[in-house]
Each structure stands twice: as C-alpha cells, then as structure tokens.
Design brief:
Radius of gyration: 30 Å
CATH class of one domain: Mainly Beta
CATH architecture of one domain: Beta Barrel
Number of helices: 8
Distance between the termini: 84 Å
Shape: elongated
Number of strands: 24
Length: 445
C-alpha cells in the first residue's frame, strides 16, 4: 500500500512539474490531475478531516434594495408629532465606580416630540416627579428632582460636541454640581429626538450612500435556545456627509435585521464630526403597529451614549403611543418653580462662584402632569378625580378642547370608569386644572 502511495505521489509531482515549469498542460493531463487530487483527498480524508461545531447561520428574508432601505429611513420624516408613555431606566456611567454604572430605579416617562425639534420628557417614580426636560432645538432645560441629593435645574444651549464634558473633567472639576450630575450634564433633548424622529437622508447625500451585508455572532434569543450562539445577517446602510471642506465623513449607520420578519430597522449609530468616534448607539426592538394607524413602531428603544456618560432604556406602553396627534402649545414649557439650585452649562465655572439667589427662575408653572387611577367621573360637572400611588388626589376639569383618548382613539367622557388607569396634562387656572389631554391606559372593557 505504501509503495502504491509513493508511486502515485511521484506521478502527481510529475504532473505539477509539467504545469509549473514547462507551461504545458494537455487536456488529458488536466483530467488526470483532477482524478489524482480527488484520490489523494480520499486516501488521507479519514485521517485528517473531522467535524467541528459552528454557530447556526439564521435564515434570511428576501433581498431588499438599497433604495427601499433609504425609503424606510426617510419615512420617519412624515411624522410631525409623537407622544407616548414609557418605563424608563437611566444609567449614569460617570458617577459609578470601576466597571459599574449607577442605575436609577425604573420610572414612568411621558414623551412628547414635535417637529422640527420641540421635545418634552417627564419622568416619575411611584407618582413622584423624578426629572423633567424640554427643548426647542436651540436651548434646553432639565429639572432633576430625584434623588434628593442631586436636585437641581440644569439649562443651556444644545451644546456641540466640543463643549461636552468627559469623565475625567467631571471628576476633576471644582464645581460640586457638575460632580453630582455626572454624565447627566451631557444629556441633550436632541439625543432623544433624533432616536425617535429619525432625520432623513437628503438628496445631496443620497448618491454617497452605500450598503453591505454583515454577519455577527450573537446570543440566540429564540425560546428554548439559551446559552447558544448564532450568526445573524444584517444590511448596514452607510450615510456619509460632506463637511465644511467638502470632504465625505461617515455620520450615520443603519442596521436592518434580515432574519426578522420584514427585515426591520434594529439599530442606528451616529458618529461625531466624521472622525469615526461613536456618539450614539440606538437599538430598536419589539416592533408593533400603532393603534388606528399603519405605522410600525419599536416598543423598546435603548439610547446608549457611553462617551457622554449615560444610557436611556425606554419601554413604550403600546396603547399610549400616538403619531401625528395635536399637542397643546404649553406642552414644551418648563420653569424652575421649585427654586432648585441651578446649573448653567453655558457658564459652568462662573455659576459655581456666584450666589444661588442670582439664578432663580420665578416664572409660575402653568402645566401640570398627573398619572393614577380614576376615583370618580362627574359628567354633569365635566370633572374627573384621579388618585396617584401616594394617595394624592387631582381634580381634572374636562372642557370642549380636552383631548381624551384610549389606544390612540378619541373617546367620550362616558367611556371613562372608576378604576381606569390614566395619565394626562392640565393647565392651572382660576377655575381649576383644565385638562388639555388625557390618555386612558386601561384597555376598553
């Protein structure tokens, strides 16, 4: 047998010699070469080849064109207003220690957006206000009410990348307000707005857009597949934009999961000033159809800005989501009525040395936010009484302009019953708190 193998190898080497050095390869020799290689593999196969474990490659959907993916991204431009209630979890990377971040307890958030850049987000925990933030795209205000040792009123411009503070600067600053706030000093309303109302790809940038297919090894999140890894396929759309010098710089990447039904958008990444530094990593999951619309929307959104020192995890209550609904003009007003210690991010060092009394905003609040359970409904007086988890009651006056909805559908006051869970806004007046909008969270009986 050994003699046969040696003879065979000698014959094979002779054929290779003909190919490599004489540059002559008749058709007959080619045939013999292929047969020889196959025989060689068969002889040695049982000794050298063995099976190894590989990660399962998840099946993919039908191909989707680049133009179609761009159209999906640009479809968000048709959304003028967005409102929802969400369970919110905040991570503060800069105030944690080592590899641990400070995690705030899960709270309830009221989210409101209006194009071009109006934003309102209010967070409550056990019916107690935790934080409130507004912005008009040029300036923002952030009111932190919980925890008690971090209460303050932060305001300033929607600062550019160069004015952001990093972890070292916050740790070394002599301003105790900045130290306590940690990564929250870098939170900007547009970080949240851009995650929900995605900016379209302009016609001037469209010709520079390209895409590729990427495979990633990830944990298998299918039921019954715990502790397994799979390979998942994505379409990744790259969006370069030209800077002031006309040079193309990568600004955004959009990830579409080819293994999920419909190949939905599952991730948006943004990059700073074209230098490749990751600014925001936003993931989307749990897609559903918004009530009474054809809009598909993610019920779970995570906004991770590690370089800015914070992360927001938002789980939307699907029945409270409304798209392109009218919002009261007072929705985006916020004042420091609690007379909190203030922090002006446009002049942080100056603020640390000046008396606190010089920076108190005394404007009165007009808009109030209430969430809780309906105690009673008096249709003759057009009044609704609700009670929060702490037992505090609020009397809401229903007027002809009050927007009362359930699952995105307008309903009459007669459909609201004691025991329903609601959340709403009202404006203080001499007659009482006149409701501008009330969302009934409890499903219809």
């Amino acid at each position: 047998m050994l003699v046969f193998k040696l003879a065979w190898l000698d014959n094979t080497a002779s054929v290779y010699h003909t190919i490599g050095f004489r540059n002559l390869l008749p058709v007959k020799s080619t045939k013999y070469l292929l047969i020889s290689l196959i025989a060689f593999a068969a002889l040695l196969g049982s000794a050298c080849v063995h099976r190894v474990n590989v990660n399962e490659l998840l099946p993919v959907n039908a191909p989707v064109s680049t133009d179609e993916l761009i159209s999906r991204i640009n479809a968000y431009n048709r959304i003028q207003t967005f409102s929802a209630q969400a369970d919110v979890t905040v991570w503060n990377y800069f105030t944690g220690e080592g590899a641990k971040a400070d995690e705030f307890p899960i709270a309830t958030g009221l989210i409101r957006f209006k194009r071009p850049e109006d934003t309102r987000m209010k967070v409550t925990f056990l019916s107690a206000d935790v934080a409130d933030m507004v912005s008009d795209g040029q300036k923002f205000k952030l009111k932190i009410l919980r925890p008690l040792d971090k209460r303050r009123f932060i305001y300033g411009r929607n600062l550019g990348d160069i004015e952001r503070m990093n972890a070292t600067e916050i740790q070394e600053t002599k301003d105790p307000q900045l130290t306590k706030a940690g990564g929250l000093v870098n939170m900007r309303p547009q970080h949240i707005t851009d995650s929900f109302l995605i900016k379209p790809i302009t016609e001037s940038d469209r010709s520079n857009v390209f895409r590729e297919e990427v495979r990633q090894v990830e944990a298998d999140n299918r039921p019954g597949k715990k502790n397994r890894l799979v390979e998942r396929s994505y379409y990744v759309v790259y969006v370069p934009e030209r800077d002031e010098k006309g040079q193309l710089k990568l600004r955004r990447k959009f990830w579409f999961d080819r293994s999920q039904v419909g190949s939905p958008l599952v991730r948006q990444q943004t990059f700073e000033n074209g230098v490749g530094r990751l600014a925001s990593d936003v993931t989307f999951g749990g897609w559903f159809t918004v009530p009474n619309t054809t809009w598909a929307w993610p019920s779970h959104v995570i906004i991770d800005r590690r370089n800015d020192g914070y992360r927001l995890d938002l789980k939307l209550l699907q029945e409270t989501v409304e798209v392109n609904a009218e919002l009261p003009a007072t929705t985006f007003e916020l004042e420091n009525t609690e007379r909190l210690e203030e922090l002006n991010l446009d002049e942080p060092h100056k603020m640390a040395d000046e008396p606190r009394a010089n920076h108190i905003v005394t404007a009165s609040a007009r808009v109030q936010h209430h969430s809780g359970e309906v105690v009673s409904v008096d249709r003759s007086r057009n009044e609704m009484i609700i009670k929060d988890d702490a037992g505090t009651e609020a009397h809401l006056l229903i007027t002809s302009s009050t927007k009362l909805t359930r699952s995105g559908r307008p309903i009459p006051l007669a459909e609201v019953k004691a025991g329903d869970k609601v959340t709403g806004e009202c404006e203080a007046s001499a007659d009482g708190c006149k409701a501008t909008s009330i969302v009934v969270i409890s499903p219809a009986p």
